[in-house]
Amino acid sequence: KRIIYLAQNPDPELIAQAQQAADYLELPLEVRTTGYGLLEERPDYRPAWRGLAENLGQRGRIQELKQRARELQGQTGLQSEAAFLRAKVARLEGRPHDARQELEVACQADPGDTTLLDELCRILFESGETAAAEPHLRHWVACEPESPSAWHNLGAALAAGGHSSEALECFKESLRIRPDHQATIQQAQALSQITGQPFPKNGSNGHH
């Protein structure tokens, strides 16, 4: 359980009040910026559109996502954001194939955008198409070699495809960057038993 504070333009005083309420209830506070405030100031600010899409998606605001995607259509430099929003809609409406198509086109247009790659791979994993995710994950780690999530997900895709030794190396690389992540440690330990390659039981891989 946690308290979520949604803010258009985060106000320090209101955040402090929310923190007091969270402390009283002995719950963690999570502050989420809706993206509206940033977009009013900088309508071409791409991360704000992504944040807004995530926020609306988590709240199930499908019609507003559709409206925002229509607003972006045709705007120079924001085609990837429009595709990101349309993919969110398709995913929420149970159309993973359409979501995948939207994101694949966007990734081709903007191949270095790791947020698009992350979203595409998430949809492929959810659809059980881990083999299809593998080349995108390889591209992701090439673009962002210090991303522990990218290495972990590549390891998961390789493990699902039976490539245990390479998968273990990916999990080790993820742990080099994020050494205490339990899910990665558990995956690495399981693959260590399968491959016979050593991996310390405490999760330390010697790369700290």
Secondary-structure-based class equals: mainly alpha
Please state roughly what percent of the residues sit in beta strands, choosing from under 5%, 5-15%, 15-25%, 25-35%, 35-45% or over 45%: under 5%
Query: Based on CA inertia axes, which overall geometry fits?
Result: globular
Strand order of the largest sheet: 1-2
Order of helices and strands: EHEHHHHHHHHHH
Number of helices: 11
Q: End-to-end distance, in Å?
A: 32 Å
Low-confidence stretches: 3-9, 34-38, 203-208
Q: Tell me the radius of gyration.
A: 20 Å
What is the residue-averaged pLDDT?
Answer: 81
- Number of E strands: 2
Helix content: 55-70%
Task: Tell me the major beta sheet.
Answer: 2 strands, parallel
Could you walk me through the main structural features you see in this protein, from its secondary elements to its overall organization?
The chain is built from eleven helices and two strands; from the N terminus they run E-H-E-H-H-H-H-H-H-H-H-H-H. With 208 residues, it is mostly helical. It has a two-stranded parallel ribbon.
